[in-house]
Design a protein that fits this description.
Largest sheet: 12 strands, mixed
Shape: globular
Radius of gyration: 20 Å
Helix content: 25-40%
CATH class of the largest domain: Alpha Beta
CATH architecture of the largest domain: 3-Layer(aba) Sandwich
Strand order of the largest sheet: 3-4-2-1-5-12-11-6-7-10-8-9
Distance between the termini: 15 Å
Number of helices: 11
Length: 326
């Protein structure tokens, strides 16, 4: 007997961006194959949308074959495409909070988040978090999470994220890298099903320091930390030169790669699979995915936005939920 599919809670994101239209396109593509419920103000959906109100995620299973299931929220403002209205900030935040509440109460199997516009949230609601991930961590009551970018071709994790390149050597400490490795390994086991996940780790410097000729961090502590964690049972390799870690043959030798800073991680995955990359937050007590793009105000409402990344984010959330339930 085939088990009843679980339902993903999709927060609406910034209503003036492409979030509402790609949600409708994703539903039309997936329908009953990957049931999800959209949480937002139905006024912000495209006029042509076939949608139906549901009271709980479970109700979406019977609706999604013929209509987009919606848990309606009343926002204060309209949605002029391409122009964020701070009046909608409280509604956007409520959408995220509602999605988290549904997954933590067991009514939904995962959270998927559409892109937000941080300035509008700050202007309209005094939003005090650097972004989605930090807000979700606060809602979950956890201090440390890890950002993974995932596609069919690569899973990669930046150890440091949105900081200046000049700040990376100071921010990158043995304690931080150990924490990132530990959270990544746990996520790969629990949510991706790898019994003994193979993790490749880059060096910080060109050519992984080339024996100290191009930097000392690899010799001073990165190699020693990797060796220590290998002895603790982790399947780690490195430090690897980043410029030789992401070609096709190299990617066959690991399940995920940890890079030392933002661009070292994001350039390879966006080059390999720009439209289908998914942002995954590891370290939360629930599954969270998101499309790997922003609000795209410049094309919102013009029929140009591709739902590919959102489709992949929903599919990956479904797969991760099945693995965790497993």
């Amino acid at each position: 007997m085939t088990p009843t599919p679980q339902v993903i809670a999709l927060s609406c994101g910034e209503p003036a961006g492409i979030g509402p239209e790609i949600a409708v396109a994703a539903w039309d593509h997936l329908r009953a194959d990957c049931p999800f419920v959209w949480i937002g103000d139905p006024r912000h959906l495209p006029e042509y949308t076939q949608w139906r109100q549901v009271n709980a995620p479970a109700d979406a299973r019977d609706v999604c074959a013929t209509a987009l299931p919606v848990i309606p929220l009343a926002f204060a403002g309209d949605a002029a495409k391409g122009r964020a209205d701070p009046k909608n900030a409280a509604g956007v935040i409520q959408s995220i909070e509602t999605a988290v509440g549904l997954v933590t109460s067991g009514q939904a199997s995962a959270v998927c988040t559409a892109p937000i516009h941080k300035k509008a949230l700050i202007d309209g609601a005094g939003f005090s978090y650097p972004g989605h991930t930090e807000f979700l961590a606060a809602l979950a009551g956890v201090d440390h999470v890890v950002m993974m970018l995932a596609s069919a071709q690569l899973r990669v994790i930046p150890a440091t994220i949105h900081i200046p390149l000049s700040a990376v050597p100071t921010a990158l400490t043995p304690a931080l890298l150990r924490q990132v490795i530990t959270i990544t390994a746990s996520g790969l086991r629990d949510q991706f099903g790898f019994t003994s996940p193979r993790i490749a780790i880059t060096g910080l410097n060109p050519h992984a320091g080339e024996g100290g000729a191009m930097g000392q961090e690899e010799l001073d502590w990165i190699a020693d930390l990797i060796a220590d964690m290998q002895h603790e049972g982790h399947a780690l390799t490195g430090p690897h030169p980043a410029d030789t870690l992401f070609h096709a043959a190299a990617r066959q030798r690991y399940d995920a790669a940890i890079a030392m800073y933002h661009d070292q991680a994001l350039i390879p995955i966006k080059t390999l699979d720009f439209d289908k990359g998914v942002n995954v937050t590891l370290g939360l007590p629930f599954i969270r995915t998101s499309p790997d793009h922003g609000t795209a105000f410049d094309i919102a409402g013009q029929g140009l936005a591709t739902p590919s990344s959102l489709i992949e984010a929903l599919r990956l959330a479904q797969s991760m939920a099945a693995t965790r339930a497993g």
